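[#protein-structures] MJ: dropping Tetratricopeptide repeat protein here for a structure pass
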Amino acid sequence: MTSRLPLASLIAGAWLALASPALAAPSLPGGIIRDLEALEQRLRAQEHTVVRDRALAQAERLAGGNAADRWARALYLQLAASAEARAGRAEAAADLLREARASDVADAEQRDRWQRQEAGLRLAAGDMAAGVALLDDWFQRHAGLPSDHWRMARAQAELERWDAAARWVKRALEAGDTPDEAQRALAVAVYRRAGHDERALALLGDGLDADSDAEAWRGAAGLAQRLGAPGQAAALWEAGWRLGVLSDSEDRLTLVKLHLAGGTPARAAEHLAEALDEEVLPDTLEHRRLLAQAWAQARDRERALSAWRHVARRSDAGDDWLRLGQLAHGWGREALAERALEAALERGVEVAEAWLAVLQQEGRGHPTRESAQDVTQVP
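AK: finished. structure tokens for Tetratricopeptide repeat protein:
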């Protein structure tokens, strides 16, 4: 459901400067400190393989030594893990950090720091269950940053633990700044799957304004559609249109269709009629038929009948005459219904005959001033 966390985002700024833990733990010989610092410089130069091999060799040499040796070994393992992570080998990096934090000379704070990093690497490697377990244990002792909460929410979502993911999303939203687009999309998806539709919909329009680009508005409306909230999608698109962000012809047509899907057909018809009058949209038969459908859905009888008559005359298609006749019949316009149904029958729509029979049975279809006119003639 969600993509794995980028490895670069897990290691950027996360690795400890070697001097800090070295001062807080058993004293190290000067030669070891200089070697560690030299390897750190080579790591910055992206000599990942060289750093890993040297660090692992030193870690093996120092195994089983005194407290200072064991502390140096843990730092070499950390360096090797950093090299593996930067080379894109998250699983190998995580294994090395697990070995480092098992050191008996590392203090609790240092072990927790490595545990948090290992958790992120497990998640990056796709081992969601292990990553979540490590993070969950770490959270027993730390409040964490909003980024940690988002990481946990995403991992729980990967495992399809929707209720747990929703709890972490809530914590992330309460603890952090306005979520970015990816975080908002995650939050909406999680809330939806957890059954919190109102929370999901409330997030859709947050943060959108005149400075937001068109894709942000389209994305929010698209999320509303996928959540089964076409009315919300139409409202978002309408807001984007009013702000001048969604302003091209395709955006206007989409707005019309969203209003139709969202249960506001009169607004759809108004937008479409205006767009046709202003030549924002071409005056095609397809657009005219859509306008007629919109007025009919809005139950604006006069405009709907007028629009369908325009379509039928322009297309001269039997199905369009049939639709005009059906609407006219339903709205008590007997004369118009009869002439439209006769036109449909003349154009090979056999079902029109049954509709004409219904008119006769109801005592309708008597000639009137309107029925004497030939409604099929294009003015």
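MJ: nice. Confidence is low (pLDDT under 50) at residues 2-23, 364-374.
AK: one more thing. Residues 300-379 form one domain.
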